[in-house]
Amino acid sequence: MANEQIEAWLHEMRSFEPSATFAEKANVSASEYGTASQDPEAWWQQQSKRLTWTTAPTKGLEWNPPFATWFADGMLNASFNCVDRHVEAGKGSKVAIHWVGDGEGEERVITYSELQELVSKCANALTDLGVSSGDRVAVYMPMIPEAVIAMLAIVRLGAMHSVVFAGFSADALASRIQDSDCHFIVTADGQFRRGVPVPLKPAVDEAVNVCPNIEAVLVVERTGTDVAWNDDIDHWWHETVDLSSPIHNCEGFPAEHNMFLMYTSGTTGKPKGILHSTAGYLVGATTTYANVFDIKPESDICWTAADIGWITGHTYIVYGPLLNGVTQVMYEGLPDSGGRDRWWKIVERLKVSILYTAPTTIRTLMKWGTEHLQPYDLSSLRVLGSVGEPINPEAWMWYREFVGGNNCPIVDTWWQTETGSIMISPLPGVTSTKPGAAMRALPGINVDVVDEAGKSVPNGHGGLLVITKPWPSMTRGIWGDPERFEETYWSKFPGIYFAGDGAKRDEDGDIWLLGRVDDVMNVSGHRLSTTEIEHAIVGFPAVAEAAVVGASDETTGQAVVAFVTLKLSEDEHENDHAVIIEAIRQHVSKAISPIAKPRQIILTPELPKTRSGKIMRRLLKDVAEQRTLGDVTTLTDPTVVAMISGLMGQHSTED
Ligand code: WT7
Hints:
Layout: H1 3-9, H2 20-25, H3 31-38, H4 40-47, E1 61-64, E2 67-70, E3 75-76, H5 78-91, E4 95-100, E5 107-111, H6 112-129, E6 136-140, H7 145-156, E7 160-163, H8 170-180, E8 184-188, E9 190-193, E10 196-199, H9 201-209, E11 216-220, E12 234-236, H10 237-240, E13 253-254, E14 258-264, E15 272-277, H11 278-292, E16 301-304, H12 311-323, E17 327-331, H13 342-350, E18 354-357, H14 359-368, E19 383-387, H15 393-403, E20 410-413, E21 447-450, E22 461-467, E23 477-478, H16 482-490, E24 497-505, E25 511-516, E26 520-523, E27 526-529, H17 530-538, E28 543-553, E29 557-566, H18 577-591, E30 600-603, H19 617-624, H20 639-650
Helix pairs in contact: 3-4, 5-6, 5-7, 6-7, 8-9, 11-12, 14-15, 19-20
5'-O-[(S)-butoxy(hydroxy)phosphoryl]adenosine binds near residues 413, 415, 416 and 513.
C-alpha cells in the first residue's frame, strides 16, 4: 500500500485513556498481556478453570497444523456450565434473561432456576423425539427465549445445533440442512417485525419437502397464525416440551466433542459449515466476555443487540453471558419497533450497563438523529462494544459522545465466525482507544500484520492480518470439507491462520482493520482500501452511509465507485445532488488523495444489505461494472439493487 494512503488514514490521532475510576476496578490489569505472552498455553489452561468439569483436563494444546485440540482429556457439559452450576451455587433466583418483545409491554423474565427447568424439559422432549449425541439439529427461530433454550438443550444432549438466521429463505435453510444432514428442526410458526406477524413455518415446510431425512420438527407458537401441519413429523412445543419432566441429569462429554455448526459465506458461492468443539469454544467465550466487557456479574445488565442467527449471538448472547452468570436483555424487535427511541427506552428502564452492537446499526441510529436519545437517562451504560465491520471514526465518536456520554470506553472488537470469540480489542480498563482502531490482540492471542511474503510489517505500514498461534476457540474445520479448510485459511502462510482481512499497524503499533483483502482496489497502480474511502465519504457532513467498490476501468485498472446515502434532512433538496456529489469528491480528494477521488458517486436512498446488516459490495461491484447481477437471495430487500442499477445512469458524474 502506498505511503500517502497510510499517512492519510493515520490522520486520526485522537486517543482516549481509560479513566482512573474505571481502571481501578477493572477485571484485567496491564500485566496480563505479559503473563499471557510468556506462555499462552499455560495462560489458557489457567482460563479453563473458569469452567466446571466432570473430569478436569491435564492437557493443554496439541497442535498438528492446521488441526488443534485443547484440554483434550477433560470432560464437561456445556449446558450445565451455562445454567445448572449457577443454580447449584445459590444463584437460582437471579434473572438470566430479561426478554423484551417486538411489541411494547411484552416481556418475560426468566431466572437461572427457571432456565434450568425449561432447558431440562426441552432436553427431555428432544430425547423423546429421537435426538441423541452427535446429531445435527437445525434451529430456525426468532429472537425469543425458546431459541436459547433449544440451543442449550441440544448441546446438553451432546448434539450439535446449526442455527440458521430466521431471515434466510427456504432454499438457504434447505441447503444448510442437507450439507450437515440435520434430522431435526426447531422453529416457530412465525415472528413479529414491527408488530407484523411474519411466517417462518412455511419456509421450514418447503425445506422439509427437499430434505427427506427430517424426522421431527418442533414448533413454538409465537404469532398464533395458521400453519400447515404434518402429523408425522410436526410437534408443538407446548404439547411436548411443556409437558416433559423438568429434571434432566446431564452427562459430561469430551472436551473436543463437536458442539455446533455456523454457516458463513466464503469467497465462493457455497456457504461453509464452520465447526466448533466444546471446551475450547466455551473457554474462549467466557474469558473474552469477562475481559473485554469488564463484566461484573453481580451488577451488570448486559445487552448484546445481535441475532442468535450469527456467531455474535452464539458467543455473546448465549454462551458468554450465561457462562458468566449475568443478567442479560434479549430483544426481539428492530431498532425502530415502536419508534426510533425504542433502544434508549430499553436502556433507561432496564439500566443496561454493557451494550454491544454493529457499526451499521450505530450509523442508522446516528442518521435518525440525537433527538431520539436526548430525553433518556443513559447513565447506566459503562462499556460500549462494536463488532462486524470496521467502524468509521465519525460513528465511533457519535457512539462515545451521545450514547456513552463521553464516559464509556468503546471496545471495537475484531473476530470472525471462524475464531469463535474476540481476538483483537482494547481491554477497557487498560488499553487506550482510538476512533476506528481495534488496537491490539487480547491476552493469549497472537496476531501479526504481514506482507505477501509473510514478513511482519513495521509500524506505520499495512498488510495482511494473521493469527500466528492456535487459540482454544478456533474453528476445528469446515464441515465435510477438510481440503477447503486448509486451502482457505492455512495455505497462504503454512501453519499460520490467514484471516482474509487487511490491517495496518500505526506508529504506536496499534492495529486498524481495513476490511477484507478482496475489497482492496488497485487504481493506477496505487492500492486503495474501500474502507478508507468510505470513512472519508462518511466524514462529509451530509452523508449517512457509503459503500465503495473498485470497478474495472480501461485506463486505471480499477476505478473508485461510491454508492452514498444522505442524511434525511439533506436528501430533500433533489436539485442540489450535483453540487453535493462534487463536494464529496473534493472532500475525498482532500482527506486521502486525488487518486482516491471517486470516478462516480451514485446517490441512493438505500444500500443493499444482507440480513445480518452487511453491505453487499459484491453486488454493487456488479452494478458498477454493469454486469448481470449475482445472487441476491440473501438481501433484506432484493429490489434495492435493481433500483440502484437504474440510478447509475441518472445521478452520476464522470471526469
Ligand atoms: C469478518 C467476519 C465477528 C462477528 C460478526 C462478523 C469483519 C468483524 C470487525 C471489526 C473490522 C470486522 C472482518 C472479518 N469484522 N469485526 N471490529 N473491525 N472488521 O462475523 O460474519 O464471520 O465476519 O467481519 O472482515 O473477517 P463474520
